[in-house]
Write a structure and sequence with these properties.
The complex is a heterodimer. By secondary structure, chain A is α+β, with helices and mostly antiparallel strands. Chain A has helices spanning about 55-65, 70-75, 80-95, 100-130, 135-155, 175-200, 205-210, 215-225, 230, 240, 265-285, 340-345, 345-350, 355-365, 370-375; strands spanning about 15-20, 35-40, 40-50, 165, 170, 305-315, 315-325, 335. Chain A is built from 15 helices and 8 strands. Chain B has helices spanning about 1-10, 15-50, 65-75, 85-105, 120-140, 145-175, 180-185, 195-200, 215-230, 240-245, 255-280, 295-320, 330-360; strands spanning about 190, 200-205, 210, 285-290. The termini of chain B are far apart.
Chain lengths: ~375, ~350
């Protein structure tokens, strides 16, 4: 049996050396490890080593009932828990043909978009911190705090929400949430103006991101990259428009996309997406229908035999949940096709020949959440 | 040997007493500054980031620096296996020496200086450049890849920024005509319009155009180079924590790390003091002159002015750090070689021409 080559050994013949970036490194935000072969400060090859926070979410799905798996979905990508729960709830509803009340669908859209904004804020703040700017992350957390307060008010949780149920929601929203969300939209728009002046237009930031880490649409296709990475390469693909789920058809919003394909394009896509999410929230709150928030769902969930899948657009890209049922109380197989895994896979090719500092900036532009890669 | 003895005994005893007093004083000054500039940095960062900063230890967190010092001293100083132990231990000692030597010639008040050297400015630059050696030794001796990358960065960064800094200082030297730091300050007496940053544009005393009409640009170049030389954000390539963990200090623990930290702040103090006395009139009052008959009280008042100007510049260093992201390395070098050096050469040429201009008429 061939031993795994996990101990980095430099080759003395060429003047390269191996640099171990992670699993505990300030810039990998979690336990991603990248084995870099460096020529001076230039990267000749970068090999991500994953699995340090592998928690067997897919395997756990086989041992739990359909309902028991719900909390797991919040813990895969902990920064956009709503959209993950949405995908799993969606696949069960699709299989059982459960009718979800309109009010519940609208609230799902509002909470998902709020969660997307919170996620982009964290991603943005942590990324600017990687670039050496410490202050923006604390401003971003200030705004995120407002979102988390709103979501805590309706589901009691601040990170791993698990708010959706098969057929609806666990709680209806109250007046405080509606008025709070209404007040949040103009507040956030003001903050975005400030962020543009303070960070986006900063010449140092622009010089560090423009032209760094070019990713072409063709490369995205080869690796299956999605989300802001794909949209930063000029492809206006968004699951919310391409295969509209829930009630996304009812809203008027754009898909921000930039053709440059560099880190700045991905940065701008995320900043613009916050504005688009605010537009969706604004419309959804205005049109929020009355009625129940829980449809008719069976008490004991058993899916018919077969394969089912459901895709949502989470903050980092396309999440696909595919389940196989053999008619029992628990799934036969749960498969999560997560965006961070595919986005990370292009890192090896795209970072070749890059400087170390640029590679860190590029890694930040992929907005990786490590548990989402390892699952 | 006897020649050295003869040389040393030329000076009065008072000279040596003053030197020893000032070396002890400098040590205390550097220590107190390092400790409390960390506090200023953390408190300032807190204010910029809408949080209180340290406020648990003592009133307004004022006891935080002693607490940090005790923590650092209580920690074990470890030498990583395979490292060059001698150089590894030596580097923290060497890193603190250059800024302390520089402080010996910096006049904090009219009579408040350790050594009134005629080539004071030269000494400051000579020792300011050695500083990089200690960082390089520390990085090299650590036997850590991150530390070696950092050491290489420090060297090329310091070489790149030494040049424009010296060029802009030469433009100033052409105006002042002396390297004696106290003499440079004496020339700026009278009020803020006599400070080099204004006098360079228009010499009010002589009533003609100054030697360097681009002197505010010169000041900016000097300040930028000072930031780069002291490895401060946005040029903190040496300890770019998101790339190189802690740069050259990665392997240092306890007081070894603490001394590097102290040296960083001591360097900032030296840099800002130099900027103050070269451009902002040093201990001169912003309006009028402190009367000579006030004696030591006048000197003390002058020292107050000096510290006010110097700490304002230091506050700006903190302000810049918590506002801007870090530059990329090639942008840093491009800034020096493609912008700062040509601009400072232009100012040098301009100064040479302008100084001759009043004589022509």
């Amino acid at each position: 049996m061939k031993a795994l080559n996990l101990i980095p050994v430099g080759d003395p013949a060429d003047e390269t050396f191996t640099l171990n970036l992670g699993p505990q490194h300030p810039a990998t935000h979690g336990v991603l490890r990248v084995k870099l072969v460096m020529d001076g400060e230039y990267i000749t090859s970068a090999q991500p080593v994953i699995g340090y926070i592998h928690r067997m979410h897919e395997k756990m799905g086989e041992n739990r009932t359909w309902t028991q798996y719900l909390p797991n979905t919040s813990r895969v990508d902990y920064l956009s828990a709503m959209t993950y729960t949405h995908a799993f709830v969606g696949v069960v509803e699709r299989a059982l043909k459960i009718e979800v009340p309109q009010r519940a669908e609208y609230i799902r859209v509002i909470t998902s978009e709020l969660n997307r904004i919170a996620s982009h804020l964290v991603g943005w703040g942590a990324w600017v911190m990687d670039l050496g700017g410490f202050t923006p992350i604390l401003y971003a957390f200030d705004d995120r705090e407002k979102i988390l307060d709103l979501l805590e008010g309706i589901c009691g949780s601040r990170l791993t929400f698990c708010y959706y149920r098969f057929g609806g929601l666990c709680n209806d929203v109250d007046e405080a949430f509606v008025s709070g969300t209404k007040a949040f939209v103009p507040y956030m728009r003001e903050r975005m103006k400030m962020y543009k002046r303070l960070v986006t237009d900063n010449i140092i930031l622009r010089k560090r991101l423009e032209g760094i880490g070019p990713v072409s649409a063709e490369m995205c296709r080869r690796y299956g990259a999605c989300g802001p990475v794909l949209r930063g390469s000029g492809v206006a693909y968004d699951v919310r428009k391409a295969e509209p789920y829930s009630v996304y058809k009812d809203f008027d919003f754009d898909i921000p996309h930039y053709p440059q394909g560099d880190s700045m394009a991905r940065y701008l896509v995320r900043m613009d997406e916050i504005e688009q999410s605010l537009r969706i929230i604004e419309q959804a709150i205005a049109k929020l229908p009355d009625g129940p928030t829980m449809g008719k769902a069976p008490r004991i969930v058993k899916l018919p035999v077969g394969d089912f899948c459901y895709a949502t657009e989470c903050a980092r890209g396309r999440l696909l949940v595919r389940v196989t049922s053999d008619g029992k109380e628990n799934p036969y197989r749960v498969r999560l096709r997560t965006p961070c895994f595919t986005n990370l896979s292009l890192f090896e090719e795209a970072s070749k020949g890059m400087l170390l500092a640029d590679a860190i900036a590029f890694m930040g532009s992929l907005d990786l959440v490590i548990p989402d890669i390892d699952r | 040997m006897s020649a050295i003895f003869d040389y040393l005994t030329q000076e009065p005893v008072w000279f040596y007493v003053r030197l020893v007093l000032f070396l002890v004083g400098t040590l205390a000054f550097v220590g107190a500054n390092a400790a409390y500039l960390v506090w200023v940095e953390r408190k300032g960062a807190g204010r910029f980031q809408r949080r209180p900063g340290p406020d648990e230890a003592g009133p307004w967190g004022l006891l935080q620096p002693p607490a940090d010092g005790i923590k650092l001293m209580a920690k074990q100083v470890m030498t990583p296996p395979g490292a060059d132990a001698l150089l590894f231990r030596l580097a923290p000692a060497l890193v603190l020496m250059p800024p302390m030597m520089c402080l010996a010639v910096i006049p904090f008040g009219d009579k408040l200086l350790a050594c009134d050297l005629n080539i004071g400015l030269l000494l400051v630059f000579a020792f300011g450049s050695i500083n990089v050696m200690a960082l390089m030794l520390g990085g090299w001796a650590s036997r850590n890849k991150y530390a070696i990358i950092s050491a290489a960065r420090v060297v090329s960064q310091n070489v790149a920024y030494e040049i424009p800094m010296l060029l802009v200082v030469i433009t100033l030297l052409m105006i002042t005509g002396t390297m004696n730091l106290n003499e440079i300050i004496h020339q700026q007496a009278g009020g803020f319009w006599q400070w080099n940053i204004v006098r360079g544009i228009w010499d009010f005393q002589a009533g003609h155009i100054g030697g360097n009409i681009l002197v505010p640009v010169t000041f900016l170049i000097f300040y930028t180079c000072m930031l780069a030389e002291t490895n401060r954000a946005p040029f903190d390539m040496a300890e770019a924590e998101s790339e190189l963990v802690a740069g050259a200090f990665t392997e240092y623990a306890g007081m070894g790390f603490g001394v590097f930290f102290m040296a960083e702040y001591a360097n900032i103090v030296v840099g800002c003091a130099l900027a103050t006395l070269l451009f902002l009139g040093g201990w001169q009052s912003p309006i009028g002159t402190v009367p000579a008959e006030w004696g030591w009280w006048g000197t003390l008042l002058g020292t107050g002015f000096f510290f006010a100007k110097m700490y304002f510049l230091i506050f700006c260093v903190v302000w810049i750090r918590w506002t801007f992201p870090r530059t990329q390395f090639y942008n840093l070098l491009n800034l020096s070689w493609k912008i700062l050096i040509p601009v400072s050469l232009v100012t040098l040429l301009l100064t040479a021409g302008l100084l001759k201009l009043p004589n022509l008429f």
